[in-house]
């Protein structure tokens, strides 16, 4: 975008709506950012298991979301766990929460949520630790 520095212009408190929606416009990125809203942080292994896509196609998206400032990461050895960034402006969290609520009963988001809940219930979450 003209006037933007680097690949992303997200900075705490300076996130522009057009950039948020652009980042969320990819189906895998949207699923990656919505899943951890009501789950513990997720690693790429967990995201891949829930989304059901090949790991190479899933793994780049959380990194893009992190670079954009929409998710934060926690590094433990070779594993990286992602969760929504706690420093997001209130309007961004409102958009994410409203979106998650609106798609709660629709595919593929309903399946993602059910699979994530099942992973937590069965202790399968954090297989990457």
Return Rg in Å.
14 Å
Distance between the termini: 38 Å
Range of helix content: 40-55%
Q: Rough shape?
A: globular
Biggest pleated-sheet summary: 3 strands, antiparallel
Q: Using the coordinates shown, work out and report the CATH topology.
A: Arc Repressor Mutant, subunit A
Number of domains: 1
Q: Kindly report the spatial arrangement of strands forming the biggest sheet.
A: 1-3-2
Count of DSSP H/I helices: 6
Name the CATH superfamily assignment. Winged helix-like DNA-binding domain superfamily/Winged helix DNA-binding domain
Mean pLDDT over the full residue set: 83
CATH architecture name: Orthogonal Bundle
Bin the strand percentage. 5-15%
Order of helical and strand elements? HHEHHEEHH
CATH class designation: Mainly Alpha
Explained architecture:
The protein is mainly alpha-helical and 129 residues long. The chain has one domain (17-120): Winged helix-like DNA-binding domain superfamily/Winged helix DNA-binding domain (Arc Repressor Mutant, subunit A, Orthogonal Bundle), CATH 1.10.10. 50% of the residues lie in helices and 11% in strands. It has helices spanning 17-24, 27-34, 44-51, 55-68, 90-102, 109-121; strands at residues 42-43, 71-76, 79-84. It has a 3-stranded antiparallel sheet with strand order 1-3-2. β2 (71-76) and β3 (79-84) form a beta hairpin. α2 (27-34) packs across α4 (55-68). The termini are far apart. Mean pLDDT is 83; it is low at 1-10.
């Amino acid at each position: 975008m003209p006037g933007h520095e680097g690949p992303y212009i997200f900075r705490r408190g300076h996130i522009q709506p057009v950039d948020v929606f652009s980042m969320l416009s990819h189906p895998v990125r949207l699923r990656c950012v919505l899943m951890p809203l009501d789950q513990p942080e997720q690693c790429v292994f967990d995201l891949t298991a829930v989304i059901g896509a090949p790991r190479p196609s899933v793994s780049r998206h959380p990194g893009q979301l992190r670079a954009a400032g929409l998710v934060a990461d926690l590094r433990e050895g070779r594993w990286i766990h992602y969760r929504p960034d706690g420093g997001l402006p209130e309007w961004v969290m409102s958009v994410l929460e409203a979106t998650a609520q609106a798609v709660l009963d629709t595919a593929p988001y309903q399946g993602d949520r059910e699979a994530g809940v099942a992973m937590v219930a069965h202790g399968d979450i954090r297989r990457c630790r």
